[in-house]
Structures are given as structure tokens and as C-alpha cells.
Amino acid sequence: MNFDQFNLDSRLNAGITKAGYDKPTPIQISAIPLALAGHDLIGTAQTGTGKTAAFVLPILHKLLKGPGKRMRALIITPTRELAAQIHQAIGQFKGNTNIRSIAIYGGVGAANQIEALHRGVEIVVACPGRLLDHIQNKHAKLGEVEVLVLDEADRMLDMGFLPDIKRILQHVPGKRQTMLFSATFPKEIERLAAQTLNRPKRVAIGLARPAHTVAHTLYPVPHHLKRGLLLKLLKQTDTNSVLVFTRTKHRAQRLAKQIANRGYKVTSLHSNRTQGQRRQALRGFKIGKYQIMVATDIAARGLDIDSISHVINYDMPDTADAYIHRIGRTGRAERTGEAFTLTTPDDREMVQKIEKIMKQKLPRQRLPDFDYDAPMPEYTHTPRKHKPRQNRRSASRPKQRVRQR
Ligand code: AMP
Fold first, then answer.
1. Is-above-0.90 flag for pTM?
2. DSSP class of residue 106?
3. For a Cys staple, 293 with which of 1, 5, 285, 333, CB 3.0–4.6 Å?
4. pLDDT tens, 102-153?
5. Could you read off the pLDDT of 340-354 as tens digits, one per residue?
6. How close is the Cα of 50 to the center of ligand 1, in Å?
7. Tally of CB atoms within 10 A around 392
8. CA atoms within 13 A on the CB side of 384
9. Has residue 379 got a pLDDT over 70?
């Protein structure tokens, strides 16, 4: 099968070739003909399967016919990075055609977005919050939307966007084509799909299982030795493009610093960073300026960086789905990748869940020259010089306060 067989508008061929796509991926083979035929779609596809092109190409094909300068396609997505990425993919495929797209998200000034909306764009790729602002302020008019895409619906649910999405849905015409993509289908998403889609066709690719091109290894370690083990692992790994996940933004920030202290070129991606810093981190990581990026789940959701060789779960993810999503960052588009997960005794239950979803027992590995019995570091307290206070109110107060640890 090749792309010619979809009979896409020939103006899209140059972009497909430029992207280096030779053959369509399985999700593209099943979704593109259905989308071109105008069906509503529910796609169960993990990231890394090529789902962006699966909805972007049929949208472009459709928009190349008919009027311009009005919002005809709306793609809603959970994170800014994902919105920027989809917008970029549209830019690549649309080539020299006069289709315009815009990415709309918070954390950056609204003026350019407002100006572009008023000038007229055919495709809007948006995160829910900022889009709602523009709707409420009458900058975004959704009355002529013909195609609606809800991308990574389960993650939008996790991030609490469901009420926003329902509000946005009130502004799009009932007569439209809708495509919903999600890696998992909790009942809220099934309900949303039932309310939003009209007799949808289902396309399921690799049902919520990570790409088969990824090798998984667990590294059991006591909690207090995690950092030491990670540094050792990095030392013996080809660190040209390693994505490390932590549970919180503070841990990401701190770990990035600690890794940098060992001489690695490292950056971090989490929601405490400004939009500019996030963009700079991503770009630097993509072009190889940074060897390592430490990120949280939300920030790294759906990132399209095809060269990531290793994903390291410094902290175990909160859910098995999050594991799938993290691992989806490597082994993309049939490349090979490795996934290392540091596990402490507290993670036993989550390991079982992951093995269940993976339908296999994951190999455990011990690093041969790592001291697994090293004791917990002592709490080192350097006593401050005790300065007697002048006007002490009560002589009966203890002289030195005991520090709470
Ligand atoms: P996605 O799942 O849409 O995020 O795509 C994952 C990666 O696969 C991206 O880097 C795409 O550019 C790439 N990709 C998508 N479709 C194809 C294809 N047909 N051939 C080669 N690479 C592709």
C-alpha cells in the first residue's frame, strides 16, 4: 500500500514526500479512507503510530475544496506542545496551498492569535482553555466548523478539560464530521463519544500497547539509591537522547540540576517553566543541544521527537496508561528504543498492572558494580554558631531549639 492509493489531492503529495513518508502506517491505512468518506471516527491509537497524519491529511484534502478564510476544521488537543506539533505537521503537508492554520494555547500573548483569527484561518489547533477565552470574547467563531478532532481525549479528561470541551461543543454545528482519538477508553470518554459522534467507525491500532520496537527493563532499587542508580545507568548508556520522567515538576527541576552537575547537557520540561523556556528546551533537545531532558507526564505528553533512544522512568508513573504514553516517546515509527524503569518496593502493584497490560513479565536487571546495600545518607547538620539573643523574654526557654527533621 502506498499513499497514491488514497487518491488524496495531488497538492498534498509534495508534503508527504518531504516528510519522508514512504508507506502509510496501519492507522493511516485504516483511518484515512474512512475519514475521506466523511465518517465519524473513534481511533484507539497510541502516539507514535502516525495518527496525526491520519486525521490531518483527510482534513487538508477536504479543505482544499470549498471556501477559505473561515474556520472549517477545529482540532482540540490537551497540551501546548502537542498543539504546536500538529500545527507544524499541517504546515508541512499543506505545502504551497493557501490553507492557513493557527495554534491556540495559553501561556503566550493573545494578540497574534486574535489577529490571525480575524484575518481568517481554515484550521485551528487549540488547547481548550484559551480557545474558550477567544470564543467568549467573540474572536473565534465556530459556526462553520465542518470537521472536529478531539485528540488524546483520555488525557484531556485526566487534565480536567472535559467541562471546557463540553462548552466548546455547544458552539460547533451539529452537522459536522467528528474524529476522536484516545489511547484508552474510560467510561467518561465512551460517554463523550456517544454524545459527540454520529454512528462512528472504530479503528483500533495496537490497543494501548507500546510499540513492539521498545525493549523494557526494570531496575529494582531502594528508594534512597535512586539517584545514584540513575547516574550509573546514564554513565553506561548512550546518552545522546534520553528522556527521564519524574512524578512532579519539583523533582524534575532538582534532578535536572543534579544530572547537570555531573557534566551532562540537560534541560527540563514541566509546567513551572514559561512557554518560551519550554519551547527552547524542546527545540534544544530535538536538535541535540541537550542530551537529556527531564520531564513530567503532562509536559511530555504526545511529544514527537523521533530520535529518542531511551526513556527512563525515574519515578514510576501513576497509572499503567501513563507508562504506555511515556514509553510511546521512544521506538517511534518503527525505530528501536529502550525503556528503563527504576522500581522501589512501593511500586510492586503498579509493576503488576503494567505487566498485565503488556501481557508479559518484564525483565529485572541489577547493575553489577552498584552498591545496593549503601546505607541511607546520614542527616548532616552543621550546627550554627550559637549567638546569645539579647532580649530573651523568658529565661526558662530551652537554650537551643531542637530542629524538626
Ligand atoms: P504521530 O503518532 O502522528 O505522533 O507520529 C509519530 C511519528 O511517526 C512522527 O514522527 C511522524 O512524522 C512519523 N510518521 C507518521 N506517519 C509516517 C509514515 N507513514 N511513514 C514514516 N513516518 C511516519
1. no
2. S
3. 285
4. 999 999 999 999 999 999 999 999 999 999 999 999 999 999 999 999 999 9
5. 999 999 999 999 988
6. 4
7. 10
8. 7
9. no
| Neighbour order of strands in the sheet with 266-269 | 214-220, 337-343, 310-313, 242-245, 292-295, 266-269
Contact (Cβ atoms closer than 8 angstroms) between residue 8 and residue 30: no
Reference 326, options 266, 245, 241; nearest CA is 245
Q: How far is the CA of 147 from the centre of ligand 1 (A)?
A: 22
| More confident: 323 or 57 | 57
Q: Is 344 exposed, middle or buried (0-12, 13-18, 19+ CB in 10 A)?
A: middle
Question: Between helices 51-63 and 26-36, what is the axis angle to 10°?
Answer: 30
Beta strands in 36-172 (DSSP E): 41-45, 73-76, 101-104, 123-126, 147-150
Distance 12 CA to ligand 1 centre (A): 16
In 3D space, the residue among 65, 66, 63, 45 whose CA is nearest the CA of residue 54 turns out to be 45
Helices (H) and strands (E) in the chain, counts: 15, 13
| Coil vs helix vs strand at 310 | strand
Contact call for residues 72 and 123 (beta carbons, < 8 A): yes
Using the 8-state DSSP alphabet, how is residue 332 labeled? G
Q: Which atom of ligand 1 is nearest to the CA of 302?
A: 4
Look up residue 339 and give its three cell numbers: 525503556
Atom of ligand 1 at shortest range from CA of 21: 20
> What residues pair up with 295 in beta bridges, in sequence order?
245, 269
Q: What is the pLDDT of residue 105?
A: 96
CA distances 79 to 49, 97, 168, 281, Å, are 18, 27, 16, 15
How far does the centroid of ligand 1 lie from the alpha carbon of residue 88, in Å? 13
Cell of 195: 454524545
Largest Cα separation within the chain, whole Å, is 91
Give residue 64's pLDDT band: very low, low, confident or very high (50, 70, 90). very high
Ligand 1 atom nearest to CA at 23? 19
Q: Where are the alpha helices (DSSP H) in 312-399?
A: 320-327, 348-358
Domains of the chain plus CATH, in order, are 3-205 (3.40.50.300), 214-358 (3.40.50.300)
Give the other-Cβ count within 10 Å of 37's Cβ.
10
Q: 3-class SS at 182? A: strand
